[in-house]
Design the sequence.
């Protein structure tokens, strides 16, 4: 109980300024619309993006959405910074794939479509076990215990090939068991819809959780654990239950991943995986419920697409994080909410020209910078293939002065213009915010 | 010594001080009175360079507006913030140590002076300041600032949460400061000691000075008291 | 006796090495409360810079130049990145160092390639210092121990002879008040972060050739140095020192212990066969888990004594 | 005499080697309003911390309605019907005012750790929270985040959370600290209003508040309760005069109301 | 030579291995090796006259990511995939290819495994569509223990390895083979340590010294190998060390930095082939990239593929797979044969010794001034091991 409430709030990682816009609250009709739109997107996405790769990505996005949302139950809602969330999704995945193998052998009479629930149960059980010790603590000690447990489990995973399958992991075949209506889950698209269904339901359930007494007390524990004790709640128990629920959803996502990949290897419990959940949940925005959804989508895109597009993807990723944390610590969700607030006061239309200008100039700057980064990488990695490379269709010569000068020029121009746009935008934004504050005051006075 | 003219201060976009002007002379206790939210603390922060402001703030004849807080502190202005900003994880002694600006320079005040002033602090010397009682914390902040050997000390609501006897004690010590040639800008809202010890009183309302005069005149000016100090 | 002496020597020297690696982190973590995930990256930079500069000017100048360069980079990072996010809290601080570690890794690979570089121990320091029971003790290891002790001394002086530690701790909760008392808080923060980075850099100069200088070296030491800092007690230099030695010695001796739970079970008359439940777990020897003992330590420590060995606070 | 609402029996507390509370005895009857006064550092807040379970006592007993509560956790004590506020504002900064209050009422209405019901459907809890909102006069700030409230509003919210659970014994630690005279006055009325029929203990330095609010005054000096009596008798008490009152400041404060 | 009907056709191979992250160095070297060999063996240089094209996909060393890259490759129309770095990813690909071919008849893929050496891939988990070009752990151990059979002075050996499937398998096969060939050799001790977790190997060295072993056998690779060697040098423990992976990118440099040491490596190649087609590749690769060409399996793989396409008269994987079974081609060290029963290539094995370059062995590995010199050569039958593979073969065709 030595942690001051200030510490606790800081650990929750919320940006105070962004939080002020929390008041924006869609009407209930709005909520219906949002959920229907979400369902619709899940339904039609694979019809629009129909290549095999994009379907794989969509399935993985569904899985990632569940796990990132479950992670945010801890981080965003409970102020618990976990470095070991992959342990729970991973254990869910392992148990699920073992169960799948049992189904395959005919020992376990369970429809494949319910397998994720097995994963969920496994995740929850794991959380019951480890959560008992981790949730005794909050703040930094909590973070460090989860780090330790994560490292231990990962190291152990390679040592126990019986259960974890060693380097090769455990593989399985999802086309087993009963086949209701001829659904075998063999084709990716069938699996996609199963995952989409789970994603939708889990998102709904997790959102519902934020509206329950426990969900609210979890927020209270994040903000000021000390006070919570004086309104009758055991903070430890609040954290523990929430931890188990988060473990359950993480386990579901693990179970879905087991179905999707039909193989589970030790990397699913690795620290790198946990780190990715943390980074992308934060990037999406931990202070808003829907933030992690954005984060999850970006995570899959970064790992699957970006890494194919450029060898420098880790560098870009690092830079994106650096800048996001510096300039938008509330994540993408907070940027969206800020603009929604402006929109709700009918002022967004004034801004779009600025946005276009900003985006345009930023793009130019980026192009210049990326051109140079790509040339450096090319020089370093593919020098033997000759100095030429094409970057977005533009032929560049990594050893030619003209390419470099060109890139520098493009970047410098972009940067200059961007700065000009940024300044005007900043002034404009400030003015609008001022007006909005005034308007709020006025409404308050009226009320 | 301290001369303030046409001072405007802002929190982001909200304009809090509207052209404040007053002076504090050498060896003088000036009380700055006013209701909650009238802008007294903001004035103090503006002098210390802790908020955005425009206008003139002169100290011993040189402009100090726009300087960093630590530079201003080095010029000899001490600030005792409101709401007891003690450093909770440091011991009482360490808190006092941080009041000193450099390790070398010898000031008017020693640790012993401080402990002599409030024996309670001496007893609690090696305790974490965070667990001190509310009143003890208040004493500590005052002493901490004195350790920096200021020529002018700005005290924001020092008697808050102090037992009546201690309030009186603080009043006496402020007078002692004055005797040692230190100027005091005392921010208060309960008139109790302010009226007794100050040489001059200022009343602030809505971000500007609405009254200047001796405590005596203020006591007589029922209108000002009613309009700007009480309900 | 022979085995014991040598193991003790190995344990102490490994412990000192751990301390060398984590001292900068302790400094930053204890003072600024920043979980600097890029600490190991600074360590790596130190090694690569030393490799680069020692090719030009030799090892001894590199020993000085390289930490200074790393410290400078650390200070710049604090000045232009970390400082901006400080006000948002610990999680963003941690994430920004996370981001930095990606960038450093990529840049290192771009400049020095993806495989290990040939960074060697200088001739003066290679070879054995003395031979004990037929086992050599290398000079370089002694040098490493010496530097670790120097680091301890330097940080200790910094903490006890100056008020920097107090200023920073106070500034963590009340930066404005500390400034109003006349302390240039931003500069102190920058110096401390730069100093911590420089210590990591120095560890890199020395660890880089003692071990392997390659892009994976940061990832390899990353987690374990956190263990040292936490087990020792956040905010406690002495704790970090004791924890390093304890971990070093225990881990070293654990390698020599070949008993397992199965052995323990059989002494109480329980016979486990390969078919019994969890056989692989039972037959696991202590020597097999020696390298991950630190993490067990960490978990147990946080459960039973969250302040750490010599720490005073939990958060 | 009926069972006292709150009783302290030879309560002691040491931090390290210093004994801060040195055998405090006190017996408060149900429905009494007690002001706890005493010099700075006398141990008033510590006493509250011991009663509410924030610190464990070194020795001695605390009885709530005759039941021993020393050694229990804060949340257990709270569930038994004792609630407290803090000298330094202690609210949920990132929740709205309404949510702050609702957090205060949930346990007492039996919702415990449930996650199978929607908050929006808990009519009784919502009604109670709205009611509290009116009582502390923050209706207009209903959806404002607590951290964006002014200081006085935060203090009011602090009290609101404290009384939210409907506890029968309420401890307030310097509820009016940092408020102006007019606000203080309004606040005393508020406290009186919301604690009707409850047992109230409050720490105060402002004699005006003390005499305006209390049925009885307990004087804590150096970790002991040296006097516990009606205001007039306490004022007349010689020891109290020496230790605490007896200054022009106190007189001025007391005269103010 | 009659012109092949396939001439001029392009055969595209998707290479999936880590191209970023901690193992990027190995992956990038191997991608270059594939591309270089493909360039050399295209057109007239293969009996089918086809052009080989190798495109790199970054699987980040992760089994799951490998499945994504596999999907990406399939989307882009690749029918041949190759991978080698790590058996984890290898098993994932083997399994996924099997399933894909099962579910998508007519669109089959072939997987060339050039370095993933887990024996299970050609035993209990074997697949018709998987062809391994490297020698697996058991074969290498067969060669190694055969060498020991001829070293009567060797009396006790210490075995140390990483505690994961590869390290465990090395230990297991070593003990089995030794029991068969040299039951008199004592196993002085056995240590399995967590992979990538040990920073300081001196405690292990002390333990080895204590045990009085005359030699060390280890399957360690990367840091775990170099740090072990360094710790031995530091402590002055000068006993020979038998390894699997002393030649992997980065390790030689680190070995050299640690000074002289007695390290043996068992492999299907060595660094001093300077003549013939392979000699040209090795030397020109070095000239072009200033990097070592050590993944000779790329050469064998393309040789086999070319021959199989010519034999099948088609580049259709279903037909090529059939043609590959039992196929024999002439390679850099005699003939190599793709055993039909388990799709494990049978080839000559070498024991290489780490030593300073000399006249007979001039090739400087990673420009360190050291080289791997062959000290022993075993004909394919010596290291051949039995298989438990029960292959599911496609019914038609
Ligand atoms: N950090 C801040 N951001 C925005 N507005 C602020 C901030 N601090 C104070 N204000 C506003 O500035 C005005 C003046 O505040 P100030 O603290 O100077 O008043 P005060 O006279 O010291 O009153 P108090 O008795 O509350 O200390 C108030 O309206 C207050 O709401
Ligand atoms: N956790 C602790 N550790 C050590 N000393 C403590 C601790 N908590 C309180 N004290 C000491 O106990 C004494 C009594 O403190 P307490 O806060 O109860 O005083 P108080 O009567 O409330 O005074 P005030 O009116 O000034 O608030 C103080 O001297 C304080 O320093
Ligand atoms: C990178 C390689 C040395 C990995 C090795 N092929 C293995 O199976 O683990
Ligand atoms: Mg104020
Ligand atoms: Mg108190």
Sequence:
């Amino acid at each position: 109980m030595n942690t001051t409430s200030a510490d606790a709030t800081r650990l929750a990682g919320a940006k105070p300024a962004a939080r002020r816009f929390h008041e924006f609250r869609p009407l209930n009709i709005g909520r219906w619309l949002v959920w229907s739109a979400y369902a619709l997107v899940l339904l039609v996405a694979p019809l629009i993006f129909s290549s095999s790769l994009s379907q794989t990505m969509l399935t993985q996005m569904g899985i990632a959405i569940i796990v990132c949302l479950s992670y945010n139950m801890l981080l965003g809602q409970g102020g618990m910074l976990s470095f070991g969330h992959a342990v729970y999704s991973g254990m869910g995945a392992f148990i699920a794939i073992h169960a799948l193998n049992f189904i395959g052998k005919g020992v376990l009479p369970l429809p494949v479509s319910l397998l994720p629930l097995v994963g969920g149960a496994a995740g929850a059980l794991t959380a019951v076990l480890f959560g008992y010790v981790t949730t005794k603590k909050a703040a930094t000690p909590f973070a460090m215990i989860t780090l330790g447990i994560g490292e231990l489990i990962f190291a152990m995973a390679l040592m126990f090939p019986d259960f974890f399958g060693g380097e090769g992991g455990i593989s399985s075949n999802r086309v087993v068991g009963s086949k209701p209506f001829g659904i075998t889950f063999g084709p990716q698209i069938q699996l996609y819809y199963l995952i989409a269904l789970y994603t939708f339901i889990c998102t709904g359930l997790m959102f519902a959780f934020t509206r329950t007494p426990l969900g609210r007390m979890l927020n209270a524990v994040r903000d000021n654990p000390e006070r919570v004790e004086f309104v009758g709640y055991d903070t430890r128990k609040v954290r523990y239950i929430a931890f188990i629920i988060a473990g359950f959803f993480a386990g579901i996502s693990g179970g879905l991943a087991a179905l999707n990949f039909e193989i589970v290897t030790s990397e699913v419990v690795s620290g790198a995986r946990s780190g990715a959940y943390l980074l992308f949940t934060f990037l999406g925005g931990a202070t808003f419920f829907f933030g992690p959804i954005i984060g999850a989508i970006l995570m899959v895109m970064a790992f699957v697409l970006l890494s194919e597009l450029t060898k420098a993807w880790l560098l870009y990723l690092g830079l994106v994080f650096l800048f996001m944390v510096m300039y938008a610590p509330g994540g993408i969700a907070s940027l969206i909410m800020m603009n929604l607030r402006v929109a709700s006061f009918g002022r967004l239309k004034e801004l779009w020209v600025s946005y276009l200008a900003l985006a345009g100039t930023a793009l130019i700057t980026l192009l210049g910078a990326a051109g140079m980064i790509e040339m450096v990488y090319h020089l370093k990695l593919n020098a033997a293939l000759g100095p030429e490379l094409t970057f977005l269709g533009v032929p560049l010569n990594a050893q030619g002065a003209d390419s470099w000068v060109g890139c520098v020029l493009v970047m410098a121009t972009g940067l200059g213009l961007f700065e000009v746009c940024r300044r005007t935008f900043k002034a404009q934004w400030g003015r609008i915010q001022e007006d909005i504050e005034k308007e709020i005051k006025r409404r308050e006075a009226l009320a | 010594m301290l001369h303030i003219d046409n001072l405007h201060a802002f929190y982001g976009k909200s304009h809090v001080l509207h052209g404040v002007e007053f002076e504090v002379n050498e060896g003088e206790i000036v009380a700055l009175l006013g209701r909650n939210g009238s802008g007294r603390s903001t004035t103090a922060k503006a002098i210390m360079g802790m908020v955005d402001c425009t206008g003139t703030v002169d100290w011993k004849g040189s402009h100090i507006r726009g300087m960093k807080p630590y530079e201003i502190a080095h010029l000899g202005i001490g600030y005792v913030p409101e709401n007891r900003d003690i450093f909770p994880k440091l011991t009482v002694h360490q808190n006092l140590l941080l009041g000193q600006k450099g390790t070398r320079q010898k000031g008017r005040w020693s640790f012993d002076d401080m402990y002599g002033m409030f024996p309670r602090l001496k007893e609690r010397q090696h305790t974490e300041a965070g667990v001190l009682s509310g009143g003890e914390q208040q004493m500590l902040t005052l002493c901490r600032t004195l350790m920096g050997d200021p020529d002018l000390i700005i005290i924001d609501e020092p008697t808050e949460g102090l037992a009546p006897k201690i309030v009186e004690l603080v009043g006496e010590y402020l007078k002692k400061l004055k005797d040692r040639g230190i100027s005091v800008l005392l921010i208060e809202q309960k008139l109790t000691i302010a009226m007794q010890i100050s040489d001059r009183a200022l009343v602030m309302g809505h971000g500007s000075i609405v009254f200047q005069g001796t405590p005596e005149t203020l006591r007589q000016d029922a209108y000002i008291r009613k309009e700007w100090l009480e309900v | 006796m022979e085995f014991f002496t040598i193991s003790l020597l190995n344990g102490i020297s490994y412990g000192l090495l751990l301390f060398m690696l984590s001292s900068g982190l302790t400094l930053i973590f204890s003072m600024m409360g920043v979980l600097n995930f890029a600490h190991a990256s600074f360590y790596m930079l130190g090694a690569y810079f030393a490799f680069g500069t020692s090719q030009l000017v030799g090892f001894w100048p590199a020993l000085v130049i390289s930490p200074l360069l790393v410290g400078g980079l650390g200070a710049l990072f604090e000045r232009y990145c970390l400082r901006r996010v400080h006000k948002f809290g610990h999680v963003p601080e941690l994430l920004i160092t996370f981001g930095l570690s990606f960038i450093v890794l990529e840049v290192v690979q771009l400049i020095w390639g993806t495989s290990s570089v040939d960074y060697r121990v200088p001739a003066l320091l290679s070879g054995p210092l003395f031979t004990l029971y037929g086992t050599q003790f290398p000079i370089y290891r002694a040098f490493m121990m010496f530097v670790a002790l120097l680091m301890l001394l330097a940080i200790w002086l910094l903490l006890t002879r100056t008020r920097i530690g107090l200023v920073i701790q106070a500034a963590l909760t009340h930066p404005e008040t500390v400034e109003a008392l006349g302390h240039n808080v931003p500069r102190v923060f920058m110096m401390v972060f730069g100093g911590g980075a420089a210590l990591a850099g120095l560890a890199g100069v020395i660890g880089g050739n003692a071990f392997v200088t390659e892009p994976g070296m940061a990832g390899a030491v990353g987690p374990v140095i956190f263990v040292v800092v936490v087990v020792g007690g956040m905010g406690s230099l002495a704790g970090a020192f004791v924890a390093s030695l304890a971990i070093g010695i225990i881990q070293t001796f654990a390698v020599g212990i070949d008993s397992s739970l199965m052995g323990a079970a059989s002494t109480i008359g329980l016979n486990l066969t390969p078919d019994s439940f969890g056989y692989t777990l039972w037959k696991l020897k202590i020597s097999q888990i020696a390298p991950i003992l630190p993490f067990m330590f960490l978990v147990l420590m946080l459960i039973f004594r969250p302040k750490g060995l010599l720490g005073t606070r939990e958060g | 005499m009926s069972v006292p609402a709150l009783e302290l029996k030879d309560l002691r507390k040491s931090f390290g080697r210093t004994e801060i509370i040195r055998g405090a005895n006190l017996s408060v009857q149900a429905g009494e309003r007690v002001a706890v006064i005493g010099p700075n550092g006398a141990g008033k807040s510590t006493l509250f911390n011991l009663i509410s379970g924030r610190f464990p006592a070194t020795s001695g007993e605390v009885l709530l309605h005759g039941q021993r509560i020393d050694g229990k956790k804060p949340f257990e004590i709270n569930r038994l019907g004792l609630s407290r506020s803090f000298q330094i504002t202690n609210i949920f900064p990132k929740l709205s005012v309404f949510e702050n209050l609702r957090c205060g009422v949930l346990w007492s209405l039996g919702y415990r750790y449930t996650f199978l019901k929607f908050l929006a459907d808990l009519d009784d809890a919502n009604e109670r929270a709205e009611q509290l909102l009116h009582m502390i006069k923050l209706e207009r700030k209903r959806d404002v985040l607590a951290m964006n409230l002014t200081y006085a509003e935060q203090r009011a919210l602090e009290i609101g959370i404290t009384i939210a659970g409907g506890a029968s014994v309420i401890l307030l630690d310097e509820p009016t600290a940092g408020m102006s005279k007019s606000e203080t006055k309004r606040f005393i009325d508020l406290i009186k209003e919301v604690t009707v029929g409850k047992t109230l203990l409050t720490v105060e330095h402002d004699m005006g508040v003390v005499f305006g609010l209390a049925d009885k005054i307990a004087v804590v000096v150096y970790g002991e309760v040296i006097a516990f009596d009606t205001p007039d008798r306490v004022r007349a008490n010689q020891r109290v005069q020496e230790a605490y009152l007896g200054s022009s400041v106190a007189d001025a404060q007391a005269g103010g109301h | 030579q009659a012109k092949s009907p396939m001439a001029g056709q392009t055969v595209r191979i998707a290479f999936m291995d880590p191209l970023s992250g901690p193992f990027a160095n190995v992956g990038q070297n191997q991608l270059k090796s594939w591309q270089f060999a493909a360039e050399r063996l295209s057109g007239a240089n293969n009996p089918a006259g086809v052009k080989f094209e190798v495109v790199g996909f970054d699987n980040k060393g992760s089994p799951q990511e490998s499945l994504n890259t596999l999907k990406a490759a399939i989307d882009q129309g690749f029918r041949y995939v190759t991978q080698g770095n790590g058996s984890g990813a290898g098993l994932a690909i083997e399994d996924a290819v099997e399933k894909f071919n099962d579910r998508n008849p007519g669109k089959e893929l072939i997987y060339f495994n050039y370095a993933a050496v887990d024996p299970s891939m050609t035993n209990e988990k074997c697949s018709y569509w998987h062809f391994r070009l490297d020698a697996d752990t058991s074969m290498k151990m067969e060669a190694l223990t055969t060498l020991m059979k001829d070293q009567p002075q060797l009396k006790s050996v210490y075995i140390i390895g990483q505690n994961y499937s590869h390290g465990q398998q090395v230990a297991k096969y070593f003990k089995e083979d030794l029991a068969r060939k040299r039951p008199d050799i004592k196993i002085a001790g056995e240590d399995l340590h967590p992979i990538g977790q040990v920073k300081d190997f001196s405690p292990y060295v002390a333990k080895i010294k204590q045990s009085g072993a005359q030699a060390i056998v280890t399957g360690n690779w990367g840091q775990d190998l170099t740090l072990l060697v360094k710790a031995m040098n530091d402590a002055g423990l000068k006993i020979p060390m038998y390894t699997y992976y002393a030649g992997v990118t980065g390790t030689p440099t680190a070995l050299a930095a640690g000074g002289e040491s007695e390290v043996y490596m068992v492999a299907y190649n060595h660094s001093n082939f300077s003549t013939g087609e392979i000699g040209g590749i090795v030397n020109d690769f070095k000239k072009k990239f200033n990097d070592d060409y050590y993944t000779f399996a790329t050469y064998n793989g393309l040789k086999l593929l070319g021959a199989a396409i010519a034999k099948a008269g088609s580049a259709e994987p279903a037909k090529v797979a059939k043609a590959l079974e039992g196929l024999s081609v002439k390679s850099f060290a005699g003939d190599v044969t793709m055993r039909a029963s388990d799709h494990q290539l049978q080839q000559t094995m070498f024991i290489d010794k780490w030593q300073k370059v000399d006249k007979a062995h001039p090739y400087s590995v990673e420009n360190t001034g050291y080289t791997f010199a062959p000290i022993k050569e075993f004909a394919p039958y010596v290291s051949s091991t039995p298989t438990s593979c029960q292959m599911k073969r496609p019914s038609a065709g």
User: Anything to note?
Assistant: Residues 2-32 of chain C form the longest helix (31 residues). The pocket of adenosine-5'-triphosphate (ligand 1) is lined by residues B 11, 14, 16, 34, 36-42, 82, 189; D 150-151 (CB under 6 Å). Chain C touches chain A through 46 residues (CB under 8 Å). The first strand of chain C starts at residue 128 and ends at 132.
